[in-house]
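Worked example

This section walks through a single chain of length 414. The input is the sequence exactly as stored; nothing has been trimmed or padded.
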Amino acid sequence: MTTTEPFPTARLADEDVRVLLLENIHTDGADFLRGKGFQVETRDGALGEDELIEAIQGVHLLGIRSTTYVTEKVLDAAPDLLAIGAFCIGTNQIDLAAATARGVAVFNAPYSNTRSVVELAIAEIISLARRLHEKSTDMHNGVWNKSAAGSHEIRGRTLGIIGYGNIGSQLSVIAEALGLSVVFYDIDDKLALGNAKRCSTLEELLAVADVVTLHVDGRPGNAGLFGDDEMSQMKPRSLFLNLSRGIAVDTAALRKHLESGHIAGAAVDVFPIEPKRQGDQFDSDLRGLKNVILTPHVGGSTEEAQQDIGRFVASKLRSYAAFGGTSLSVNMPGINLPADLDKHRLALVHRNAPGVLARINAVLGEHGVNLEAQSLSTRGEIGYVLTDVAEEVGPEVLAELAALPETVRLRQLS
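Given that input, the structure is written out below as tokens.
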């Protein structure tokens, strides 16, 4: 890891903290941060790289959803940036390695919209099985087609879940309660819930599943996970859902298998390229197919989920800015020291090397700084230490701590 330009170490008053929230983040998040005295600017749509570089100048806390990409170039242009909040589950739109190397903490909402995604998956499975979307379209076109042909119950069918994380496992439980048999495949060793059965290979799952649903993350290894070969191995007339990551599926191959009838229907909520703003043109290989439900990345977009996400991520950003708390951070070691208004706190992100804590404390000791509390944690190549002291430290002490060869970022919090 290498540090970039010198970082600001001066203490920030709440009223000096600047926040930029993009992509229609729920107003509860902005209201929470404003209530803490922060300066908050909100924008409706996503920003491209150059737009974000311009907008992020002087910003301390950045909030995004899934369509704004925080690249290394953006991070290089944002020396004041302290933390990024992904107001969603995924963080693949953020260069985590570059953020960590610059001491920028990243937070997300790993649980808040789980139920919303699960409920959409269930709704779409039933809709595809009953062909409700096709019948609704016919009715709007003035066609009365009262027929049971091609409509099926989901009870007794087998649901194959690829990715058995928070969403996949909860979907498993609810699907089983509706009478579906559940099989799943995950590269990690996951505990099967209820009567769900683990498949040792993806091929094993595809051979038995009447409905296949993807719930994988955005790691690079999942790009192209599901293509022509995998679709060819699905049972004839089975159903397919992708409510996870657009990069995981070859949409051209999916169209081919839908047009041939090998796959009876599909529901897709995520796409390799998505519009950045409301009303922008949407293009996909899957447009125009009667047996496909297309939704604009709304799996987690319920009022309940977005409100909870807004509050949750905003509280994490505020805790980090004000107190240095990194609980549930995606990229930083997790530390929380209780807020103590009678103490002064230093937050130091450093390279994980032997003897760093001793060198930090030696600097403090040489200047007669009395330690009141201290907590250190490491995570891979990075370490993080919070230190409470009785009196505010002077600029000489800060300069010496910042000059330590292992220091990535230093802040004086109170």
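What to look for: The longest strand covers residues 371-379.
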